[in-house]
Each structure stands twice: as C-alpha cells, then as structure tokens.
## 1
Amino acid sequence: MINALTERKGVKVGLITTEGFRDSLEIARGNRPDFFNLHYEKPRPFVPRYLRRELPGRVTYKGQELRSLDLSGLPAILDDFRAEGVEAVAICFLHSYANPGHEQAALEAVRRLWPEVSVVSSHQITREWREYERASTTVLSAYVQPTAERYLSRLAAGLADQGFRHSPYIMQSNCGVDTLDSVSRIPITMVESGPASGFWGAAELGKLIGEPNVLALDIGGTTAKCSLIENGEVKIKTDYWIERDRTSSGYPIMVPVVDLVEIGNGGGSIAWVDDYGKLHVGPRSAGAVPGPAAYGRGGTRATTTDANLWLGRINRDYFCGGEVIADMQAAEAALGEVAGQLGVGVDEAARGIIRIANNNMVNALKLVSLNRGHDPRDFTLVVFGGGGAMHGMALAAELGVRKVVVPAGASVFSAWGMMMSDLRRDYFLTRLADLRPGSAAGIEALFAETEAQAVAQFEAEGVQPSRVKFFRYGKFRYQNQEHTTEVLIAEGPITDARLSEIETAFHTTYEREYTYRLAAPVEMVGIHLVASAEVGKLTMQQREGSGAAAETALKGHRDVDYALEGVHRAAIYDGERLEPGMHFVGPAIIEDPGTTVVIHPGQRVSIDGYGNTHIELNGGDGQ
Amino acid sequence: MSYSASDPITLEIIQNSLQAAADEMFAVMKKTAMSSIIYEVLDMGTGITDAKGALASSGAGIPAFVGMLDKAVKVIVAKFDKPGDIEPGDVFVTNDPYYGGVTHLSDIVVAMPVFVGDRIIAWTANIAHNSDVGGMAPGSLSGNATEIFQEGLRLPAIKMISRGEPIRSVMDIIKVNSRMPDVLEGDVWAAIASVRIGGRRLVELAEKYGTDTFETAMTSFLDFGEVVTRRALANLPKGTFELTEEQDDGQFFNVKVTISDEAFVVDLRDNPDQARNPVNTSRDGVMVAAQLIVKSLTDPYSAANEGSFRPIRLLTRPGSVFEAMEPAPIGFYYEVLLRVYDLIWRCLAPHMPDRLAAGHFASVCGTFIGGVHPDTGRQYTIIEPQIGGWGGKPGRDGNSAIFCGFHGETYNCPAEINEARNGLYVDRMELNLEPGGEGRYRGGRGIVMDYRLRADNGFLTMGYTRSKFPAWALDGGREGSPNYVRYLGKDGTDQRYSFVSGLTTHTDDVIRVVTGNGGGIGDPRERDRTLVAEDIKNGLITPERAREVYGYEA
C-alpha cells in the first residue's frame, strides 16, 4: 500500500471541493523546510488542477449550514472526469468534520450518477479540522482504493478457496486489526501497519514480562524506527506524513498511526565522508542488492553491517545465520576507502561508523522520549528487527536505560505482534468546548454517541457489545493555544463535578511535558476514543529450563571491538541452545540465525521463561 | 569512559547533539505558544551560542531568525559584565533593535546562560513574534509611527528571571503593556520553557563529555562553518557587481557586492537617509539579509553558524535607512530586510544563473486583522505573512504559493481554523490567475484569498512591497505580478492598498489578499509547447493570452 503511494502506482483521481478551495491541495501550507535552499521543489499535488472541481455550499465551523449545497453542476463534473479517465473520486468540503451532511449528499449523488466509480469523502476517514490535510488524506485514500480493494478481495477469495472459513483481519497503522470489509472501504488506514505491529508486540511483551514502560526500537536493513509505550499503551496520533523530511514538506495523511520516529539508519546504511572530511551514515542504503560489501555481490560501499563484521560483533563465519560467506576482502576494501578519506586506520573507521550510526539512533530515541517529556531512564528498551540487538545495548548505555529486552525471534517480532493485536478502532473528532460548568453534558454526549456508533459497527461484525472496551481521551489546551495535549479520562460518565479532576489531569500532564503550568482557562478541542475487542490472541506459555548452566550453550570465544570500551575477549553463545533460567555476564555475543546480540563488558544477561533475553546494565557507556 | 577532545567522532556527536537541542527547543516553543503567529506561522527561532555569543546552532523556523539570537546574547554579555551580574538560573530578555533585538519590538528574545559549576559554557536563546506588545496600534505595528516609542514596550536587554525566580515587577510590566496580556504571558513562558530545556540538554552534554571537550566541539564547529563558506566562495564568480533599483515609494536603493576568495563585501553606504515612517532597519537586520544570501549561495545544506558568516563584510552608513539611529521607528523592518535581500539577489542573478532564479514575490505581505469575535465576544488578532509565487529557473518553473525568502518552515492558517478562531469567513483561497511571470520557464503563482468580516469596528493594517514593481524577470522572461490588498466594502467601495494602517472594517466587507506571481526566465516563445498546453488545460492561462505571449496555436 505504501509502495503504491511512493511509487505513484495508484489511479487517476478527481477531487471535488467547496467553491473557492479547489487549489487548497496545491497551495498546501506554503512551508519551505529546506529554507536556505533557493532550489526547493514543492511536492506536486496528486491531482492536477483540471481534475480539481468545486461545488457551491457552505457549513460553518459549528456545523450550521450557511449556504445549501448546490449539486446542479455535479453531472457535468462527472462527465469531465469520465472523459479524462478518472477512476476514483475524492470529496472534501469545508467543515465537514463538524457536519458531514453536504459530503454525504454529494457522495450519494456521485454513487447514483456513476455507480461504477470508486468514491470516498473526507468525513468517512477523519473528523478532524484542517482542510488541506483532510483533502490530502482523502485524495491519497482514493488514489490507492481501487488497487487495494482488488488486492483484498483476491486475498479473501484465495483464503476461501483454501478452506479458510473465518473472515480475516487486516493489520492497521493504529496497532489494531480491522475487518476486511472495513479496510476495503478505507485502505489508507493500513499505511504504517508493518511498524505498528512491531510496536504493539513490544507493548504486549512488556505487559507479559512486567515492563509496562517500553522504548521500542526496530532496526531493519534501511531504517530504524522507534516508539514509546507508557503504561502498556502505545500512543496513536493523526499527524502523519509520507515523503516528509528536512528537504520536503511531504504529504499529510490524517489517519490514526502509531506515534513513531523513523530515520534512515539500518544494517545496509552506507557510510560516507563528505567534502569536509566528516563521516556520515545513511540515509542511503545498499539495499538487498548489492547489499553490504561483505555480501560479495558487488557492493563497494561500506555499510553498518560491514563495520559490525569487521569489529567482530557479527561472526564472519556465521554471517546471516551461516547462509552467506562473508567477503571480508570486499568489506576491508570498502571500509578502507572510508578510512582513507578520514585519514585513519580501518579499525578506527569501523568504530567511527558504529558510533555515528548509534548517535543517529540515540537522537531518534530522544525524539520519542525526551522531546515528549519522558525520561528514557524510566523505560525498558525492547529491541527487534535484524539489527536491534546489535546496537541496543550501546544505545541503552548512552541513554541511561537500565534494562534491554531482546524478544525471542527478534528478527520476525512484528509477525508476533500482529498475532497479539485486538480489533481496534480509533475515533478522532474535533469539537470545541470550554471546560467550565455546563459543558460536561455535551462532552459526555459526544463520547456516548461515538461509543454507540462503535458498538453498532462492532455488532454488525458479530462482536458482542459486552466485549468492546473503551478508552476515552480528551484533547485539551490552554485557551488561545493551538496544539493540544491528550489526557486519558478515567472511567465513568463525565459530569460537571468531574471537570476539575479532568482539568487537574491536564495541568499535570502539561507541566511534565513543558516544565510549567498556567492559570489560563482550559478548553477541549476534540476527543479521541479507542474502541477495542479481543479477537483470539495467542496465549504465551512459560517454559521451564533444564537447569543446565549457560556454558552448555557456549560456542567459543573471539575478540570483539566495543569501540570506546576497547577490544575484549567475548564469550560466544548459541542462541538456539540458551534455555530459560540461564544467565551470564558480558562481554559476550549471542548468535541466532536471525540476529546477533552484542553484550558489552559487565552487562548481565538472563533468559526468561518465554525465551526472551534480558540484559541489565550497570552504567557504563556505549559510544 | 573518557572522551578525547581531539577525537573527531566525539566532536561530531556533540555537534549533532547541539543541533538536536536547538530542534527540541523549537518543538517546545511551537507546542506551548499561544499566538497563532508562533505556533502556526512558526514566526520564531531558537539558538545556541558559545559563552561569548557566537552562534553555534539554530532551530528551524525562519531563516531570517537564524542570525539574530547571537546579536542579542552579545549585547547582554557586554551589558552585564561585572562579576555576579549573571548567575545560574538567570534569564534575560530584549526586544529592542537598539539593544541587540535586531528586528522590531514585537519580537521578544529570551536568553539564558548555561552554567556548569560557576562557568558559563553556552547560552540558549529564543526569538518569537508576539501578538501585542503595546504601542499606538493593536498588534503593535502601525505605518503611522514616527518614533520607536509608539511601537510598543521597550525591553532593553534586562534580567527577567533571577536565580530561577521570576522578577515579579518585570513580569508585571511586560504583561500590563499588552492588549492581550494572557497571550503575551503564555508566549513568554513558552519561550522560557524552551531555553530552560535547551540549557538542561547542554549541561548533560558538558557533564558527559567534559566541559573542555564540549567547548572544543563548539569552537571546531564554528571553524568548520567558516571552512564551508570559504570553500564555496572560491567557486563563485569574482568581481564587483552593482545595482540601482527603484522602490515602490520612489526611492532608489543602491548595492555594490564585491566577491573575492577572502570575502563577500556588501556595500550599502550609498542609500537614502532613515525614514520618518517605520520602514527602517537596524544594521543587524541588514547583516541578516546578507547572511541569508551568502548561506544560500555557498552551502544551503550544512548547518549555519557564526563561522559560516565570518567572510561577510558589511558596509552601512549610520543614519541611513539601513542603519537607523534611535529613535527611528522600525516596525516594518522586515520589508526593508527583504528589499536588501532581493537587491543583492537581483544584483548577482545575471552572473550566476545556475544558483539564482528569477525574482519572487519578495514581500512578507504582513497582514494584521483584528476585531471582536461575534461568537465568543473575545478580541482576536490575525498577524500573518502571506504565500506567493517564486521565479522560474533554468529547467524548471517556479513554485506556487510558498512563503518568501525571509520565511521558511512557516505554515499558513487553515481556513477551518481561521473561521473558528477569528470573526470572519474565508470565502476563497485560490491561485492567482493574473497575467505575469511568463517565460521559457514561468514563475509560480501567488494567491487570492478573501476574508469576509463578521463584525463591525475591526481594523486592518498591512504593508506590502513589490506592489508597484513586481517580481523581476531574467533573460527575456516576463516580470511577475504585484502584491496588494483590495478592500471591497459592502457599500460598494473598491480600494487597492499596498500600505494601510488601522483601517476600520465593517460586517460583510471583504479584504482580498492578492500576492504576486514570480518572474519568468527566458523567452516565452521558447517554452515547451506541451507545457503551454498543460497550463491552458489547468486553467492557469487563457488560450488568448497563450497565443499573445507564447505564440501558441492550439
């Protein structure tokens, strides 16, 4: 799905907006993130101007109709769209988050006039304000909808053919699963489903092992992604963009996505030296082909993996679980080139690559913790993906984290996370309300209506109302502010008597994040309701160990370069022979077919009943 | 663990962390501010300087704010020069261009010394545009001001927080001078939170790596900035380039730029005396304009710090519009800054076509609208820059509807939020289809935005330049189109403005903001025919105009 977007393999979309706003998709927000660059290129809109059309009719921000919707021009617009080969229609009207009436009317009219076309309107996807972001979301959803629909219906048919009698669930970007029908209507909600399942897995694992506060880090081949889990809860937000970085404003997609930070640093990230002799790692990646130089497939650029091999962290005789013969000559040549440009030896260059890569990842972890007002020392680091365990212990030391957990099957952990997901929907609604006596009834009604809507939707899919769990969040701010702080509202109906309790919760959350609080009035800007129901999770069973000592899993010893901590003779353990209850102390390496765990000197390792590796740190430093 | 001050990787990591700290300061300010000009427009910047005030890193906001914070810190350091004048936990404030504030009184700079033990290792600082700092007009800016005293409360580089405790009298004076006291208080506290969080990060860094290593990293970072600029300077065409340009108000501005391997000299001495109205700037403001151009011409991708700007030599004349003397009013300094920026750009563009495009709409187009919100009864004030068209360059049309060179990571206000927060309707927000900017590669489009007012007795203040002389063209392209406001009264009045102050507004009057199209580059007749056809299909140009300008026959 994300590939259909980034590779521009969607369909031709026609957009219908409120009169006066056809250009809002192209105007966007006007920002130039790369601000010294006079050659900045603004992202091109997914719908060219001639396919952006308007209809008269206005609704106010309070949801009142100011001017009725005039559909008389619609048939001609659709005729033009047909003639231009449009395959999907997107509708986005001003203030439809407050009152979707006009969008609903236009949607029905399009379905009536052109039953074959794929059509979606903004309120079906999001009920939050900001017309450009909503239009962009609607357009991108329409862009992939026909393709996704075909794919999902083939999937359903294929499963049925093979005798699968249940309706499958599809992983979503909000860490939940949803029904196939529901996803087929709004496929854009899958946009970050891959990373979401890993982070959900980290949250579930945390609950299982009694670590509810988790910093989760997923290091793959080209990128590293991280997210913060507090009290077992992943944070879901709706400010998500594709193709956004320091050099481009990207395209917003306003759907519930797990709050994550992604950087271009993975095992295949290329190390390079700029014109001024400074070393960088990523964001360019050697990919799977040619891959790191040590793959011996013609890669000549040094990658993080080459540095890890060179320093003895990865076993050169057990590369990729023994499936690849490490081409150490190629690795040396590639690292040597970097070393030459830096004017240092190969060892020093390899250490530098690891330290720079680690620093990039530390900064990403800071973005999800410190920048959001959390102290990383209060969290357990859960690392997964192919490279997570290789760097995790150094990062933990740098951040002052006391414990790292490497889940069993870390390299395929996302799949486990998916099996642990609930049927989950996140409802975000913009609604302004002052937090003062008299307003509680309206807020309660908004939650109650949304809950009723959620229950009805679940019930239609065969889920009993009694199985549906709700979490109510309010989005609050001081009057005159713009950005909101989300606060969990404790169970029970919201009454005027409880407003001060809610306000206090806001002040507390706000102060933790921003160092101060104000006496200013507090207002609600909207709600975030989480509705979930368990749908047959895996049940994890603890295993008993045989009582054997860790030495029985020992494969041997080798020299490992721990960068600033120097070279140490490390014990090498076979991950497949480690059993619950075993424990040992670093310097050590655990080798598994999918991943390598690098344990620094003095760090204490134990294996729990589920086969997860726990590493306790006692200070020290990883860089 | 020990870190060596000579280990380049350690230094690199500290330098990255300085950038991360400046970014974090920025994020905090953005999330906590109360003025939409701060949290939505992001008319703000954050920075870290060394102990003497040399800029080490800055948080993204607007490029024009990158080079401002160091100047404020330097003034504070010079003013508080006795032992004990500056103590841990102190926070200072200035907004006065005659006391290191650089810009105008609306921009409040908050700066905090960062101590390790009893030694200052750095400063963290923050600048942001506040909604109202007093003065003769709501929003504090008025084209009618003739002295700085009429433009708001002056804070001449003073202490605001002493050893962590707010100085109550200073806080009270700041608050009582604003027409929007709660908003101003909230914004000042947001700025304080931002410098404190930055300070905390720097202390952590210095404690971890050692103060000496930390300071070495800062120094080497500044030297690196200089190396980058000097190396790029060597690749620029050398010589002296001159330009005289007529301004909308009939004045002539002159610039002489001399580029050598050693220096980038901007000579602005031959220019008019300072104005009686607030279209003046401090010398620091002009320096920022020169810094913007130099950074864009040399290496726009690496971080900007004091070192990047060392090769700049700026020559101005005291008492001139580019080095105004107290008590000259300076409210609209940013238009003057942009004029200098555009003047240097235009002067150099013909000599470096691969680096510099044709002219853009080149005005902040600052628009100030206020009144009472009919639904809440509360006062609202819109303070916003506008987006417009940029110029064509070899091989590519200009961007449509982005902020001018002064602004950067700046966001326009969504109509939906505008209507909720402010007492007006946004009737339209479209690309500007006026002719102008045609060329082999054409300029991007400006915008047309209609604000329809919902209450009586509001006000409009605005000041746009490039209203008479639009974006300039290159190599036979057509010049762009002008920036202006058209005021369409319900009573049938239809008035065009480039500058107006405190105009009283009425229910159902329409304020139409029109921003210019960028300049074109190259002969329009050489434009690729398929591109002309595409423009016609997209309704950006009529077939008649296409025939006339592009010689296009369908």
Note: The longest strand of chain A covers residues 423-434.
## 2
Amino acid sequence: MTETIHETFARLMTLDRDVLAIAWLSLRVSLTAVAIGLLLGIPLGAFLAVTRFRGRSALVGLLNAFMGLPPVIVGLVLYLVLSRSGPLGSLGLLFTPGAMVAAQAMLATPLVAALTRQVVADAEDHLGEQLRSLGLSAPRRAGVLVYDTRFSLVTTALAAFGRAISEIGAVLVVGGNIDGHTRTMTTAISLETQKGDLSLALALGIVLIALVVTVNAVAALLRGHAVRAYG
Amino acid sequence: MVVPRRGFLTLGLLALFGTVAPASMDRARAEPASIVVASTTSTEQSGLFKHILPAFEAKTGIAVKVVALGTGQALDAARRGDADVALVHDRPAEDAFVAQGFAKARFDVMYNDFVLVGPKTDPAGARGTDITAALKRIAAAKAPFVSRGDRSGTHSAELRSWKEAGIDLPAVKGEWYRDVGQGMGPALNTASALDAYILADRGTWLAFKNRGDLAILVEGDKRLFNPYGVMLVNPDKHPTVKAKEGQAFIDWLVSPEGQASIAAYRIGGEQLFFPSANVSPVTKAKP
C-alpha cells in the first residue's frame, strides 16, 4: 500500500502530454454537457416551480428520481439509439465526443431541473404573491425568480458538473474509451486499473480530483466577485 | 427586487456554450479519414495497438480508433454496423460471423497462446504442460478459479478446455468458481487478490503489473493456441462501413511490414504476438 503511494507520487511528476489531453477532453465534454443541462434544466425547473397543473407533482417526483438515473443505463439506451442500426444511427455520433456530451447532458439535465425547481420554489414562497400582484405572467415570474436565485444556482451547476465529470458508465459505453479520441479521465483510470497499473491509475485519480477542485474554486471566485459587483 | 438583465450567469452560459461546444465537435470533424476497429481487451490492454498503429497511421493518414470489448461484444458491435473492422480471437464465432454474411472474408493475423496462471504455491497441484489434467485437479481440489464470464475469446477457450477435460462445469461449479464477467485485466486483479487460478492470454499477462503471488503454471499445451483473425464488416450489410480504409488496414496488417511490426512488440524481451498471415496457423502453433 505505502509502496503504491510512493510510486503514485513519482508517477505524478512524470505525467505527460497525453494526460493533459485526456484531462482537457474530460473538461470540455463535461462543461459542454453541463451547459446543455443548464439551458434545458433551469427553464424546466423554474417553470415547474411557478406553475400549477395536473400531473405536476408526479412530474416533480419523476424529476427528483431521475437525479439518481444510473449512468450505465443512460449509456446503454443512448448506445442503442445512436448505433448504426438504431433510430439516430445516421448521425454517426457513436464513439465520438459528441455522444459523450449527449450522455452526460442526459444525466445533468434532470439534476439541474430538480435542484432549480427546489431553489426557485423556495424563492417563490417569499416573493410569489408580490409578483402575481404585479400581474406578471408565469414565464416572467420564473425569469425574475431565476435571476434572483442566480447565485444559489451556481451550486446547482457545480453539482451537475460533479455528476458529469465523475461518471464512467455512460461515457464508456457510448464513447468506447478510444485512445486519443474518446478516452476521458474516468475511463483512463478504469483502463489502468484493469491493466493492474494501480499507481498510474491513482496518479490519474489525483489529477481528476485536482481538476474538480479547481473548477469549484474558480466558480466560487466568480460567484464571490459577482455577488460584490451585482448582488 | 431586480429586473432580469444580462447578468453574469447568462453571459457565462453563452461563453461556455460558445467556446466549449464547437471545440468538442471540431475534433471529430477535423480527422479526414478514420476507421473504427472493434477489438478485444487482450490486444488493447497488452499495449499491442499502441505499438503498431503509429506506423500505419503515418503511412496512410488513416486514424484507427480502437474500441476494446470482449470478442462476443466486439462481433455484436460489428454486426450492428458500429465498427468497420473486427479483430478478434474466437475462431468458431468468427466463422459464424462470415457464414452469416456480416463479413466476406476472414484473415489470419497473428497468434499467441493462453496460459494457466495460479498461485506460486499451487495448492491444487496443477503445474505442468497438460491443461485438461490441470483443470481436473483444480476442480477436484475445489481451488479458487476466476472465470472471465463475459463471452470473450478467452472465456470461450476456457469453456472449451473444461469440456475437453470432461468436466461438466454447471454440475460441479460452486463457491470456488468465480464468474466475474469482466475483461482480462479486472479478472487478473481478482485472481491476484484471491490467490485463484485463471486462464489468461499471454499478452495481457505479460503486460499485467499487479501480479501478487501469481505465476504461470501451465503453458505450451497446443490446445492453448490462441489465433487472432481480422474481418472487414460487409459493406453490403452496412453501407456506412468505410470499406476502402478498413481494407487498407487489413492489407497492412497482413503485409510483411505489418507482420514485422507485430513481431517486434516485446515486453521485457518477450514477444507477445506471433505473425501468422498466409501460413496455416495450427502448424505454426507455439509448442
């Protein structure tokens, strides 16, 4: 065990450009997926928070449950859809970074929507009546409340990023872990573990954790700056 | 209360989407010619592709994207049209693939062999040169045995060996027979942790680093011969198959240059794969 740890740190010093390229791909895929998740999830969550209609609570319950969607199932379904023999096979997306973005976006969107709904619903408890008395339509009210809670929604974005960058089940199936093309941090770690090169796997794991911590730190800095500037 | 205006969140989102999305899409588009090769975990995890592909890519400009799966899964992916070329090691399954019309031809590429790996102390007394005798002793001793259990070429070979040993696996298997359903590497990791016996391909074993107390106990039995074949997916079945580029890869693999590149791959001085194009594979089996 201690031997592995010693080796791990030795390996960390010698990580090469390949690792940087893999880390960069992971970052790009996950950030893109989170961006899509935010674009789809925030309006959906906010809409569910400010409106009342039949079946709404069932939809909210479903959304909350989908926060726990198993990545490998998402990967499998997407594989069958994107396969050349599947309905969207003509897109030729299988085993490309685009397929991995789609898979992670499918994981991020329900998470963003469910958390946004909660945050916006809480804000609505305080401000909803006031907004309605101004005669604002539901989309307008949703917009105002999202803007009001924007700093809390940063945490939602970070949660979605955490889910996207750490998952392996979906990207492995739809990406194929192709060297130099669809190999991400998590699939690389898994591959090195499979090869029995545990110290390299652990070194890559440390890089991944550093990446996640850095993204979170940057978000915290931006948020702090924004709160001072616009809050 | 504030009225929504273009806050940093919106801008940040747009910036993210504007810069990140095209970047990740670019990559797929920027590569002029590329093929997808469905292959086995043994070829990928042994490091063979990393060794031979740069020469082919430099010569032809065709990028080779290897998806490493078990042989059964790799052939399934090829059947669905998700790969252009399949490079696998399960002769009966490959012949069926050709017979079903999913490929027009199968080429011999190379071979290596399977080895029975187990704890150095060899509690079941399996050491020797006879795989069936070894398996009989392991079953009799109910010594821990790890099986791939994933329809891979190695799994098929293991099941064939039990059959040849005259052992009715479903009848005798119990707690000692661990079916892990994973690739060669994870199965070896499990065997290493459990001090169990396992049938492995020599290439992955040589490249494997977490050996613990495991060592090769049985090798050299001609029944452990492990031939690899390569097939172009039939473009008549799947028009999206890149037949020209895929065939170029196959032609290169079986050419003197490709065969020499395969033969040159060594780990710790040991050759992992032996070229077998254009020769009758069984007669060239490793003794």
Note: Chain A has a mean pLDDT of 92.
